[in-house]
Amino acid sequence: MTEDQSVNLLHRGSSASMHEQLADQLRRLAAQSGSDTRMPTEMELVSTYQVSRTTVRRAIAALVEEGLLVRRQGAGTFVAPKRAAHPLDQLRPFVSIFSSIGKYPEGRVLRFEWTNDPSALHGLDADAGLLIRRLYIIEGAPQAMVDITLPDVVGERISRAQIEEHPIYQVLQQDLGLKLSHGDITLASVGARPDQAELLGVNPGSPLLALSRVTYDDSTRPVERARYHLLPDLFELHLTVGAQGSEQLSYSFTRPGPELVMRAGSEDASPR
């Protein structure tokens, strides 16, 4: 598309505002470009469509809110990639979420140290543990991060080399010979702390999808606590549940009472 053709597609006399028209053009461009393609910069759009920077920002913001585009700090605006779905119906290495969409990330180990921080050890029944922080990166872009804590009786049997080479479940099962039984998982939406925001390339306070997991062995001993922080535009969590017992539910919602209306010049109130 030439610059003249682009300008002709925006009409100042149209009933649609300029930023709405520009958003329509960017939708078409995104559809033609494909997932994870970098969009033109704000200044390139200003020059091409002969509109103000405010108009460009409003158009992009609308498409970000729709989930069609994503902003990456320091990198630009991109067509939203296909979300990776992480099933929650069974225990599985988190890294398997990437292979399901044909991606194979680098798992960069940023921390490998002992801790006695109660918040890191919560749910592990231990006074000390091995703390591991891993950042998942694909083609130079951060995708997710995880803080893993292992109770001391487990952590003392693990080397950094093992963690740098394999996912934690593989180390626990194949290297240590543990038999995993089940896991307790909690989901939440949280604001990115400054250290998380810096690693994931978002602004502090940006919403993150948080998955907390405590894994137990076959003797019901907690052997791992993991706290994943995921970019919500890249990931979704999937769970299939049965309907057993739903037919037994019985509930009645409370109805609001009548609204009292005061009549002008009168002390009487009547329901409406």
From TrEMBL:
Classification via Pfam families: GntR, UTRA
Record-annotated HTH gntR-type domain positions: 12-82
Gene3D superfamilies referenced in this protein's UniProt entry, alphabetically: Chorismate lyase-like, Winged helix-like DNA-binding domain superfamily/Winged helix DNA-binding domain
SMART domains: HTH_GNTR, UTRA
A biological process from GO: negative regulation of DNA-templated transcription
GO MF entries: DNA binding; DNA-binding transcription factor activity
InterPro entries per record: Bact_HTH_transcr_reg, Chorismate_lyase_/UTRA_dom_sf, Tscrpt_reg_HTH_GntR, UTRA, WH-like_DNA-bd_sf, WH_DNA-bd_sf
Alphabetical keyword list: DNA-binding, Transcription, Transcription regulation
SUPFAM superfamilies membership: Chorismate lyase-like (SSF64288), Winged helix' DNA-binding domain (SSF46785)
PANTHER family per UniProt: MANNOSYL-D-GLYCERATE TRANSPORT/METABOLISM SYSTEM REPRESSOR MNGR-RELATED, MANNOSYL-D-GLYCERATE TRANSPORT_METABOLISM SYSTEM REPRESSOR MNGR-RELATED
Protein name per the record: GntR family transcriptional regulator
